[in-house]
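Aim 2 progress update. The chain analyzed this quarter is reproduced below.
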Amino acid sequence: MTTSQLKDYLKKAVKLESNSFELGQIKDKIYETLWSREPPKREKTWTPVKPEAKVDHYYLLFWMCLFDLMFLIMVGVLISEHISLFKMDSVGLITFLVFTLPALILTAMFVGMILKDKKKYERELKASMASQEVMDKNYQSAYSKWMKSYTVIKKPVNDLMSQTSSSLSTFYADNTIYPKYRNLAAMSTISEYFETGRVTELTGPNGAYNLYEAELRQNIIIGQLNAILNNLEAIRNNQYMLYQQLSTISYNTNRIGNELSQLNSYAFTMTQLTALNTELNRISLINSSCR
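Predicted structure tokens:
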């Protein structure tokens, strides 16, 4: 393969590797953006306080009144015996009632309060359960729409990733490029060597592979994309082609992320995502042209 042919070949390799890397970035951006917009988790509605927890003091007072009632009845009986209560003496009956009636009334009041609170609790519990049911239905509806939309977006991205991977495998099938260098960082840097006239061949002491390895050892260039992404400006001078590729990828993925974050509904379609559609179409065309 001539130097001119190698230049063209490497340009195609850079395009395909760039597409592969960008699709991975797009997929991560979609995941990051959409999962941050996931429907809020179901929150429990208010739960009424159970009567047992709410009226413990009522029960204490009830037992106190019951004790008082028993005591007063005993006192009333004793007094009534001396004033002929059981002989149906009116004075004895009145005396008995004076001692026992207040306790009976007080006890009845506390029993009524307990029963009232129980009925109130049952009404509130029924209302709470109805409210929770509505909330659950709304959440399920929103989550279903959101998951459907997420699946709709993922599919074309995953399909294009598979297509790009297949295109790369076909492209490298002739083994022009040694497997170690089949990545975006290496292909961009080696292509730049050819474009700037620093090398005219891949192998040999003066070849692109040898120069690439030498500059890696001297830390003139960076071969790990993760390290590059954290400090993109660091490669601007020595790996300008790679810098351009990554800058473009970053711009495209951020544009797609911004478009997704501006959606106002959990339900949306691909037709609403202009930036994503444009980029996927562009990548697909490049893949086709590099076969």
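Residues 3-39+140-289 form one domain. The two ends are 17 Å apart (CA to CA). These observations will guide the mutagenesis experiments scheduled for the next reporting period.
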